[in-house]
Amino acid sequence: MAAQFGRRLRKGAATTAVAAVAVAALSASQAPGVNDHGRQTAADATPSPDVSASDGSATGNSPYYTDLPPLKSPNPSPSTGPSPSGQGETEAGIPATVLDAYKKAEASLRESKPGCNLPWQLLAAIGRVESGQARGGRVDAEGTTIGKILGPQLDGNGFALIKDTDNGAYDGNSAYDQAVGPMQFIPSTWAWAGRDGNADGKKDPNNIYDAALAAGHYLCRNNWDLSDQDDLDRAILSYNNSREYLALVMRWLEYYRKGTHEVPDGTGTLPGNRSDGGSGTGSDRSTPSGPATPSTPGQGASKPKPSPKPEKPGTPSPKPPTTPPGSPAPPPSTPPTPTDTVDHLENAGAAKLTAMAGDAFTQRISTRAETKAGKAVAKVRIRFTILGDTDTTFTGGESVATVATNSSGVAVAPALQAGEKTGAVTVRATVVGRTVAGLDYTATVTERAADKLARTGDAALTCVPGGEFADAVQVKATYQGAVADGVAATATLIKSAADPAANDKGPYFKDAAGKPVRTLTGLKTDAKGLLTLPKLYADDTAGTFLLRITTAGGATLTVELTVAAAETSSPSPSASPGA
User: Fold this and answer.
1) 338-446 and 452-563 share one CATH topology?
2) What is the CATH number of domain 452-563?
3) Are 124 and 94 in contact (CB under 8 A)?
4) pTM of the prediction?
5) pLDDT tens-place string over residues 363-418
6) What is the CATH number of domain 338-446?
7) What residue spans define the domains of the chain?
8) How many Cβ atoms from other residues are within 10 Å of residue 560's Cβ?
9) Secondary structure, 3-state, 306-339
10) Strand 462-463 versus strand 556-563 pairing type
11) What are the angstrom distances between the C-alpha of 106 and each of 74, 113, 156, 249?
12) Which tens digit of pLDDT belongs to each residue from 491-505?
């Protein structure tokens, strides 16, 4: 979660008890349209079945701010500044740069993934819950937060256990991961979900433009349509797998949909309560630190130590501690996780992977995680990454997908979607959070092909010497009975059925300079599989000629062309005078 805030603006909601009541109220009365899928609470880091294909969550199920929106909805265009009747107008205000980042992310996703229907208000709702809109808009002119926003280290002590995956590059912590930035991505998720939202050549989780665009792409993966409530629920739960989190984000989403406005950067309202029992107080953290100490038992809280019993006479003094004063206490020992037991990855049955450009691969890559003894390991996150210069992606347009292994230790990657670039594509499977040799798979993208060509008309193609053919040649290409679009084709005026060499006389096409050409290359069928050839002309040679059209995949069609002088009609004999 975000760093603890330097001051608290809402003192009335400061206690852990209030936070607990707020979450309880959310559980009892869900926001409109929220479905009950029986998800876990934020403290439970185990993903639900329908979100297990993600990294578990974008945030590693880090703590989040539980402050509720005001009961009074904002006006459609409220004035800036606090409302005399309550906090509605202040809460509805979003810092200018942060609001701009959300709207730019929505515009980008509208163009790149129009079927997702991402509303910027959803980004605002998540940004409010995750970091209080970048700590009330404390960002510079480029949108980078003033000081890093870091969540508690995910060391399993009241939180999920995620050992370091970035060598401290993003969070400064080389032991455990921490959620980073205004949208609170864990480093292992940012490694593939990160985006450059402000076109500065960097993907920085601490920049609101980069983070907002990354969050949008994360919410739009898996072909989710966020105008559908079930898909919206899945997307939000994939961000933080908690039923209470879903309800809270939905509350803020509906609140922002009813009206919001821009406020100056740095003047936004700061939240006060966290889902782990912490609060928004404390200093900004620009360097990593340990987890905030929760005050709720069972959430990693420190139990009060009992008073020492008085020593009995004659009892020897306790031995001095073996750890020198001032030395850090040794980290608590934790039992090995399933990830810790993985020794290697095995191909779980993915055979030859081949698809035509533009088509989906029918086979999917599957990987099995095993111990050194060859035993399957369940609940391990496997990351599949498409390498190299290729436009082949997973379904949904992403080049990286993370999938948890099932009870058989097998993780099945999303279906591959072939791009237009042909050739070999490498997909690498690795274990998230553990250094194990990756397993590479090769997928092959072949060029688009047709296996049949047919003319769309049956009119005879004729011309007089030195003239031009009245009808253009049009053919339709199919592959296994389906339309074959984008298929490369060649048209040649050949010498004979037995000699496919280009003819040096008879009908011809014209190039851009108007000169005769008898071979056309670089042709392609259109979206309907149709190919219409340019106009044909004839020289002074009469006779029957052949036009041969061939496509990738081996489809061939030979068309007959006739060049002959026009028939002249003889005048009818004059009637005899006797008649």
Assistant:
1) yes
2) 2.60.40.1930
3) yes
4) 0.57
5) 999 999 999 999 999 999 899 999 988 999 998 788 888 888 999 999 999 999 99
6) 2.60.40.10
7) 11-263, 338-446, 452-563
8) 11
9) CCCCCCCCCCCCCCCCCCCCCCCCCCCCCCCCHH
10) parallel
11) 22, 10, 35, 17
12) 999 999 999 999 999
